[in-house]
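Holo model, pyridoxal-5'-phosphate. Inputs:
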Amino acid sequence: MSMNRTAILEDFPILSSTMRGKPFTYLDSAATSLTPEQVVQAMSRYYLEYGVNVHRGVYEFSERATREYEEVRKKTEKFLGLLPHSPGKSPLGHVIFTKSTTEASNLLAYSYGRAKLRSGEEILTTETEHHSTLVPWHPVCEKTGAILKTVPISPQGTFTLDDFASRLTPRTKIAVFSAMSNVTGFMPPIKEMIQRAKEVGALTIVDGAQYVSHHGVNVEELGCDFLYFSAHKMLGPTGLGVLYGRTEILETMEPFLYGGNMILKVSDFASTYHPLPEKFEAGTPPIAEVLGFGAALDYLSNIRMDTIRDQEKRLLTYGLEMASKRPWMKVLGPKNPEIQGAIMSFNVEGVHSHDLGTLLDSQGIAVRTGVHCAQPLMEHLRVGGGAVRASMYFYNTEKDIDTLFEGIERAKEIFG
Ligand SMILES: Cc1ncc(COP(=O)(O)O)c(C=O)c1O
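Output:
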């Protein structure tokens, strides 16, 4: 599949709809991407044709659901560049299905952080993090006495490899950071950061919630210990997250949730657990969501991740150029498409971000306003009151950017 506009409009009927009586312009994919027909079909096929539980039944429909569920796990591994392992040898890593990025982050904070960190040991993160990646480590520090350290950012919301590496110490046990900021789009040099963190023996955790939907990822090449992301930001359904983790570390960790599906043997007073990955998938999993996610991965693979990145780079370049002609617009972030994903957050002089968002809504334009679940970052960028975020995906066009700027001009006229 290429970037064929007719095909895209057919696959995403919502793009041809109206909002507030105006043609719908969607610039909020960093919150949740739109869902193509193929994903909805995969989910409704499951519910209508063989919608039963997995891993339990010995009958045909259950076997089919189980087989397809496990095939999506394999597809996800392939998407992440995880190579098939030789028979008899443990795979380098496992894909675990969670409810969300947020749940995956909590799983690591509980099952690794709370269990293994000791007083005085350090967790290194950055000032750019989403609350989902930052907040679970606060109680870990309270409970264990571990110390959270942050890498400071420049006024553009960036930091360098040296800024990061100079804060690593022999006491750093965990380095946790996002591959792409959901506010500025900044993409730090994660491969090098992982390497430097490993040199001091730290565990590396990458928040890929924004990055993975826009860029090819190869976990074997990256070398990270953990990577997590959400299906709903990459054409898939809500209610599903993915946690990739290195086998040798997952094996040392206690489960996060306990119950059915993850147990091997249970007596009145004790239980043993399934091997990986089921050990971390207690209860009935989000079956339809996993099957829908499989269709989303097919869709992305058909387009190709490098085509997606190229298209978004063009859109971002165009948007940044338009903004640079308007001195009353203050764009956050590096303003450099080489190190910035398809996100443009900004404020307009004299217009509160909420008012701007509301006015854009009245023109059929969907953007996000506020602090974007990244309060510390907004404070460090000195925009504690919030900003407007326009975020793009491959189904956006230059016309959407033009519509956005027409809306901004209108708001400026009305409020300015
Ligand atoms: C960088 C980043 N991390 C984590 C999350 C949390 O994802 P979810 O709400 O799907 O759990 C988001 C969602 O916006 C995000 O952008």
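Residues 100-102, 130, 132-133, 178, 182, 207, 209-210, 230 surround pyridoxal-5'-phosphate (CB under 6 Å). The longest strand covers residues 172-178.
Archived with the compound record.
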